[in-house]
Amino acid sequence: MDLLVQHSGWVTLQRIVDDRDGVLCIMNSAKEIPFEIRRVYFINNLDSCSSIRGRHAHRKLQQVIFCINGSFTLSLDDGVNRQDVELKRENEGVILGPMLWHTMHDFSGGCVLLVAASDFYDESDYIRSYDEFLTLVRKGEK
Ligand code: TYD
User: What is the 122 CA–ligand 1 centroid distance (Å)?
Assistant: First the structure.
């Protein structure tokens, strides 16, 4: 599926299938991942029915999000266009650039998310109010 929202895009990792010995996927900083990686985090133990994560945008942070087990729905919103994407292939990630409101939901059982980020955690980089997000997008368009 093409990504129509701004500040996003697909990332495809090399995937090596070792038959019975599993599957190996590789992400290289500043190669497949379009920035220098400073932080990696993962999320597991989700409740398939009720968990919702994200619901924010970042001012400057760049991230790429992967679903390395199971599946989930990623809802993207650049302030003008909205798009839902199903992540279910472990080697296909989605770029979460700055000023992209994102929400993760509808997790399958055993779902594991992996995120590569361009910087350390900084709460002041978060926009957690959707109204503030829209105001900032509109200011940026002027
Ligand atoms: P948050 O980024 O809001 O999670 P998600 O986008 O997956 O829903 O982070 C949840 C909490 O964890 C919040 O209190 C901040 C904290 N946190 C850190 O301390 N360091 C980190 O690197 C991250 C990603 C979150």
Answer: 9
